[in-house]
Description:
Elements: H1 8-21, H2 23-51, H3 57-86, H4 93-96, H5 103-123, H6 125-134, H7 138-145, H8 149-160, H9 164-183, H10 189-217
Helix pairs in contact: 1-10, 2-3, 3-7, 3-10, 5-6, 5-7, 5-8, 7-8, 9-10
Amino acid sequence: MSSQKFSIDDALRFGWDTMRGNFFPLIGFLLLALLIMLVPTLLTSFCLSALGINEGWQGKIINPSVNCIVSVIAAMGLTRIALIYCDQQKPKIGEFFSVSSLFLHYIATVVLYRGIMLAGCLLLIVPGIVWAIQFQFAEYLVVDKGLTPMDALRKSSEITRGAKWNILGFNILVTLIDLLGLLCLVVGLLPAGLITWLAMVFVYRQLLTSTQTTTEST
């Protein structure tokens, strides 16, 4: 295994091949995530409006809370689906919801990660970038391995050790690909987004595998 721990070319090739071979199932899962985010939010707004409290303080608390919950559930489900594709398997609809029991761990990890990035940016931009890369796979580790927030952050730090420059280059590249997709009359944004999303999960798995292999050989 190379010191880079993962290949950017392999990651993008995986993203392209998986998107091309599973385009319509992937669109179906994206639509499912969209429904999960929209339907409860719309129903909540309708019920609050019917009760006459949509504009009150209750509505200002309930609406964002519902939005947060359903967005987290959708993000967890999509991550789970991408991980299944990384295992060269075909995910089923039920597997989208198979990690819902990890909701509290996941949202706590998100909060901690965002807090770490904010602290890094308040100190200086460079620590913010370094910490963002160091802990960027913590959320994947919760979904993939069921880790607690602190364990997920520690494991993310472990698997990104020695690969931060490579990850930074990859992050920049996928951002450029997404921007290019947006510039292609917007229609290119969907396939570009699918490719980079799948490639990112592939990178996570490669880092995890590389770290485990290195640990076992020492």
